[in-house]
Design goal:
The protein is mainly alpha-helical. The protein has 7 helices and 2 strands; from the N terminus they run H-H-E-E-H-H-H-H-H. A two-stranded antiparallel ribbon has the order 1-2. The structure holds fe (ii) ion (FE2) (2 copies).
Length: 159
């Protein structure tokens, strides 16, 4: 399911996401399944698009570069969580993703904090504290529900 953006939105979104999405380190997310037939890469792209779209639609005033960066890297934990053997993956992966994003892309502490809080309220003590953080946590929940309900990977048919 593609989150539809206007032509102008598509151009602005693309400008921000392109360098990140093309980075070989981010391309590794294509190897891991998030849920159903959706890879972590596709899921991250969906969350980035949805967070960007919501920010524009609601005139929420989030910083778009920071929003897109955090949204695209929010699940940058780089393992297959189904076989990773961590039963508390849900609790642990926001910290791992934030650390990986800091290590590989030198993202700011603010961006790491957005990634860190995306599972709230599961991670009770990491409450979203910025516009960007609220948009990412919300977009993640919307996209996860949508992806699970419709289970459509790229190119997969839909009956
Ligand atoms: Fe996550
Ligand atoms: Fe996610």
């Amino acid at each position: 399911m593609t989150i539809s953006l206007s032509k102008d939105e598509e151009r602005d979104f693309d400008r921000e996401i392109r360098p990140l999405a093309a980075d070989p380190r981010c391309q590794r997310m294509k190897r891991f399944i998030q849920h159903g037939r959706i890879t972590t890469y596709e899921h991250s792209m969906n969350v980035a698009r949805e967070a960007f779209r919501l920010n524009r639609e609601w005139h929420a005033g989030a910083d778009e570069r920071r929003l897109i960066t955090a949204a695209f890297l929010h699940d940058y934990f780089l393992y297959d969580w189904h076989t990773h053997g961590d039963r508390l993956h849900g609790y642990h992966h926001p910290r791992i993703a934030a650390e990986n994003a800091g290590r590989d892309f030198r993202v700011s502490a603010r961006t790491q904090k957005i990634i860190r809080s995306h599972m709230w309220p599961l991670t009770l003590f990491h409450v979203p504290t910025s516009r960007e953080a609220w948009l990412v946590t919300l977009a993640d929940k919307i996209c996860s529900a949508r992806e699970t309900l419709f289970e459509r990977g790229s190119g997969a048919g839909h009956r």
